[in-house]
Amino acid sequence: MVSSILRCVDCQTEYAFEKNLYTCPTCGGLLDVVHDLAAWKGRAEELRHLFNERMRSWKAVDRSGVWRYRELIAPGIDEKLIVTRGEGNTTLYDATDALSLYVGVNRLQLKHEGENPTGSFKDRGMSPGVTRARQMGATAVICASTGNTSASMASFASLAGLRALILFPEGKVAVGKVAQSIAYGAVSVQVRGDFDAALELVREASDKLPIYMLNSINPFRLEGQKTIIIEMMHQRNWQVPDWIVVPGGNLGNSAAFGKALLEMQEIGLIDRLPRVAVIQAEGAAPFAKAFEHEFDHFEPVRAETVATAIRIGNPASYKKAIRTVVKTHGWATSVSDQDIMDAKAQVDFAGIGCEPASAASVAGTKKLVEQGVIKPAEEVVCVLTGHVLKDPQVVIDYHGQNMPNVDAKFPNRMHTIYGTLDELVEFLPGNAAVRL
Fold first, then answer.
1. Coil, strand, or helix at residue 164?
2. How far is the C-alpha of 345 from the C-alpha of 223, rounded, in Å?
3. What is the pLDDT of residues 64-112, one digit of tens each?
């Protein structure tokens, strides 16, 4: 059986895997789940065959796009403890010619995590997170959320028979996401402050109360989020792209991606590392600002952006995300709300669709191409993190040209008629009324 430990990313102190820890008791640093993967070195082809065989299985843990890769996520896990909704299995789209032209690269793919059961990538991390809660004997779980984490935790907690308590920043969450949490039965509480204030209260509660925390500070969440990359490489027949581009909010994905890539390279599943680019919204870009100074200084910000899922000013996984960018010779930058919404319109027009935060990866790729960081001939995979219906009001406002500080460059206006055939004819393809 492969053994695992918990290790602090700062002071390198190691702790027993069985300990119920979120951060390092010695220095307060973030923890990694570290698996002894030595047994799989030189056996990459065996692992590939195992993963392929599970694709043919109807067993619930094999059908999961997380637990299919359990040797890299939770070696030796008791399968009876696993909480799964068949998460993962998300599509890797080839971009349309129009979208590739808009972005400026010849070879563009989109990995759409909005196709998870609750509509965001959070399900990948929540499945092992709630499984760990069950493993530790928890009866209740807690998180702070800008919406997607709460929807996911509420669903998986209900499935596992656990009580869920969610803290939202008041007035800063899309209604569709709040509705999901309420629908799944979670106790939902608004905090008069931003996300960072809500998270601080959650951390205090998890230290002092008998409740299990499931924000991305929890290292087991990131183990599940690693499978975005593992599954992506599996879908690409283990061929590595030049760039992987991801939105950056709390930086859990950015951290998980680097960990996954380094572990896959260690085993031999991939022969090189892609470069990872982290894209933040201009109004919530502390990581991108730190990158400009080679991470020698970090300053939290008061976050404000239309992309609510990444409206985070003091990202919890900051140090782990640095590791990803440094080890992959990656990049970080920020894009405006205008850039995000225009890129979202292009992704939506391609028939794929995404929530605003997702479009940051596409807007960021376009910006980096224009700056010469990404070359047009390089192969790029953009990660879309959430479903288009996570924030439907933003869609209506953009296309109705009713968004403050955003001038819709690609509006698709709603039309009204009295209901005659003569009027309707005007909307047939080629007529002026339907031209954007």
1. strand
2. 32
3. 999 999 999 999 999 999 999 999 999 999 999 999 999 999 999 999 9
**Any idea what DSSP says for residue 113?**
G
Q: What spatial distance separates the first Cα and last Cα of the chain, rounded to whole Å? A: 60
Torsion sign over Cα 266, 269, 275, 280: negative
Give the torsion sign (CA, 219, 221, 225, 227). positive
Helix ranges, 144-213 (H)? 148-160, 175-183, 195-208
Hey, where are the domains in the chain? 1-36, 41-120+218-436
Would you say the pTM of this structure is higher than 0.85?
Answer: yes
Q: Tell me the one-letter amino acid at 284.
A: A
Q: Is 56 exposed, middle or buried (0-12, 13-18, 19+ CB in 10 A)?
A: exposed
CB atoms within 10 A of CB 19: 11
Give the strand order in the sheet containing 187-191. 187-191, 163-169, 140-144, 212-213
In one letter, which amino acid is 77? I
213 Cβ contact partners less than 8 Å away, ≥ 6 residues apart: 22, 141, 142, 143, 202, 203, 205, 206
Q: Report DSSP state, residue 95.
A: P
Closest alpha carbon to 375 in 91, 23, 26, 107: 107
Distance CA 323, CA 35 (A): 18
Dihedral angle, C-alpha 228, 233, 236, 237, nearest 10 °: -140
Give pLDDT tens digits for 34-74: 999 999 999 999 999 999 999 999 999 999 999 999 999 99
Side chain identity at 202, as an amino acid letter?
V
**Is the CB of residue 279 less than 8 Å from the CB of residue 361?**
yes
3-state DSSP call for residue 67?
helix
41-120+218-436: CATH number: 3.40.50.1100
Angle between helices 337-349 and 356-370 (to 10 degrees): 100
CA angle, residues 230, 332, 397, in degrees to nearest 5: 90
Q: Give Cα 291 to chain centroid, integer Å.
A: 20
According to DSSP, the residues that pair with 245 across neighbouring strands are 277, 382
**250 contacts 315 by C-beta, under 8 angstroms:** yes
User: Exposure of 16 by Cβ count < 10 A (0-12 exposed, 13-18 middle, 19+ buried)?
Assistant: exposed
Largest CA distance in the chain: 76
